[in-house]
Design brief:
Layout lengths: L7 H5 L4 H32 L4 H43 L5 H14 L1 H25 L3 H13 L22 H15 L10
Helix pairs in contact: 2-3, 2-4, 2-7, 3-4, 3-5, 4-5, 5-7
Amino acid sequence: MNRDPAFAGVAAGFIPNDVTRHTMTILVHTHWVALAMAAVAATTDHRSGTIPNWLTLPPLFLGPAVFFYVHGVPGLLSSLAGLIVCGLIPALLYWKDAIGGGDVKLFAALGAVVGLEMGLEAQLISYIAAWLYSLVRLGIDRKLGTSLRSSLFLLLNPLLPKSRRREIKRELLTSVRLGGAILVGTAITVLLRHPDLWSGWWS
């Protein structure tokens, strides 16, 4: 059974079967919309280093509207919670110049489209994917040790007295475009919600 809050009323049987099937169909479609959004974002980010507003801004309004249509107030709240919470941590990272504004809007848009639980899962997996990619890339470039030391002092500097702080040169930090990692995180999250698409591979 799907654990997403937007499916709670459906799973509990609060609405007729015919409406349930209709609701489930629309909500499942939001999974594929999110995946398509992430795929387009990964493509544009790879080509130009940007994620366009025409991709991320409309879902911020359409996501809550669709959830309200198919599941009333609980669906609306799930979408709005996804939008706000999934945009909060990226916004803090943007404030620290760690990620771009397009990444923030994409994370928020994905939260609005799939709800809070799936949005957070996709975001967490995206961060893990970006971290793993960074480690591999640094290892290939033979910069892993230097970058890890710089990252450590980047975290410790605010806690250390000024005399012991180390200046972190910007060229020692590794820049990673998140579009591809967000696609990986979104794809894994969607596929975990649809085991029928891949479970037969192991039988």
